[in-house]
Amino acid sequence: MMSREIRIATRKSALALWQAEYVKARLEEAHPGLLVSLVPMVSRGDKLLDAPLAKIGGKGLFVKELETALLENEADIAVHSMKDVPMDFPEGLGLFCICEREDPRDAFVSNTFASLDDLPPGSVVGTSSLRRQAQLLARRPDLKIQFLRGNVNTRLAKLDAGDYDAIILAAAGLIRLGFEDRIRSSISVEHSLPAGGQGAVGIECRSADSAIHALLAPLHHRDTALRVTAERALNKHLNGGCQVPIACYALLEGEQLWLRGLVGQPDGGQLLRAEGRAPVESAEALGVQVAEQLLAQGAAAILKAVYGEADPE
Ligand SMILES: NCc1[nH]cc(CCC(=O)O)c1CC(=O)O
C-alpha cells in the first residue's frame, strides 16, 4: 500500500528550504494526489554559525535534529546536501535516494575581479573550508584567507559589505538560490577538487519504510548515486568529518568510475593527490583504494594535525 502523505524534515536555511521544496515538487509530479508537507527545524550547525566548523567538531552537525525527527516519527524523509551527510546512519535510518547532481564545482565570487588569476598579490579571500583553503594557497601562497561562515545569503552580504576581495562558494548553492549571476568564474575541478557529494541532494528515511522507498524511487539518479558512493567511500576510509582538507570527485566513463582524491595541508604547503578507475559495481572498493593511495603518501599525518587542532564537543 502506498503512503498518501509524506512529511519532509528540513533545516530552515534558504538553501535547505529550496532543496526540500524541490523534492516536494518532484514527489508531487511523480505521484499526483500525494500530500507533501515540510517540517522545518533548526540544527546545531545553524545555531553555531559563528564558530569555525573545524573547531566545533562533531560529525553530522546539520543532520542530527532531522534524524531525530525521523526516528520519532515526526517526519518521513529528510532532505540533505550530500556534502553534509555523515558516513554512518543511526540504527533504523538510511539513505534511500540521491537526486541528480547540480554543478559540483566551486565558484569564484567577487565584485571586482573576474577570476582567481585576476586577484592581485595579497588579496583577501573568504572561505572557512580547509579543503578550499589548501588548494587556493597551494596555487596562490600570497593570498590572505579570511574566515567566512553563514548561509549563502549571509556570505554574499559579507562580500558586498567590502570585507573580502573575493569569496569561494559551491556553485550548486548559488545556482539553486538564483544567484548564478554572482558567479564570476567556475573553478575547474583540477584547481579546486570538490568535496565528496558536493552539488547532490540526498534523501534519508526509515530503513523499514518500504512504502516511502517506493515513492522516492522516481527521484533516484543512478549515475549521481554511483559517483557519490565512490566519493563517500573515500571520505569514510579517511574518517573524514564535515570539515577536513579532503576533496574527492568521481566521474562516469561509460560503466567505469574515475575517482580523484586529494588531501591537503591547510596552508597549501603539501597537496597529496591520487586517482583510480573501476567498474561501477566496485564503487566503494574504488573509494577505499584511492584513500589507501593517499594514506600511503602520508595523508594520515596531515589529517591528524588538523583533527588535533579541532576541539570536538
Ligand atoms: N557546507 C555548507 C553547504 N552545504 C552544501 C552547500 C552547497 C550545495 C551543495 O554542495 O549541494 C553548502 C554551501 C557551500 O559550500 O558553499
UniProtKB/TrEMBL annotation:
<dbReference type="Pfam" id="PF03900">
    <property type="entry name" value="Porphobil_deamC"/>
</dbReference>
<dbReference type="GO" id="GO:0005737">
    <property type="term" value="C:cytoplasm"/>
</dbReference>
<keyword id="KW-0627">Porphyrin biosynthesis</keyword>
<comment type="similarity">
    <text>Belongs to the HMBS family.</text>
</comment>
<comment type="pathway">
    <text>Porphyrin-containing compound metabolism; protoporphyrin-IX biosynthesis; coproporphyrinogen-III from 5-aminolevulinate: step 2/4.</text>
</comment>
<feature type="domain" description="Porphobilinogen deaminase C-terminal">
    <location>
        <begin position="226"/>
        <end position="295"/>
    </location>
</feature>
<comment type="subunit">
    <text>Monomer.</text>
</comment>
<keyword id="KW-0808">Transferase</keyword>
<dbReference type="GO" id="GO:0006782">
    <property type="term" value="P:protoporphyrinogen IX biosynthetic process"/>
</dbReference>
<dbReference type="InterPro" id="IPR022419">
    <property type="entry name" value="Porphobilin_deaminase_cofac_BS"/>
</dbReference>
<dbReference type="InterPro" id="IPR036803">
    <property type="entry name" value="Porphobilinogen_deaminase_C_sf"/>
</dbReference>
<dbReference type="InterPro" id="IPR022417">
    <property type="entry name" value="Porphobilin_deaminase_N"/>
</dbReference>
<dbReference type="GO" id="GO:0004418">
    <property type="term" value="F:hydroxymethylbilane synthase activity"/>
</dbReference>
<dbReference type="Pfam" id="PF01379">
    <property type="entry name" value="Porphobil_deam"/>
</dbReference>
<feature type="modified residue" description="S-(dipyrrolylmethanemethyl)cysteine">
    <location>
        <position position="242"/>
    </location>
</feature>
<dbReference type="InterPro" id="IPR022418">
    <property type="entry name" value="Porphobilinogen_deaminase_C"/>
</dbReference>
<feature type="domain" description="Porphobilinogen deaminase N-terminal">
    <location>
        <begin position="6"/>
        <end position="213"/>
    </location>
</feature>
<comment type="function">
    <text>Tetrapolymerization of the monopyrrole PBG into the hydroxymethylbilane pre-uroporphyrinogen in several discrete steps.</text>
</comment>
<protein>
    <recommendedName>
        <fullName>Porphobilinogen deaminase</fullName>
        <ecNumber>2.5.1.61</ecNumber>
    </recommendedName>
</protein>
<dbReference type="InterPro" id="IPR000860">
    <property type="entry name" value="HemC"/>
</dbReference>
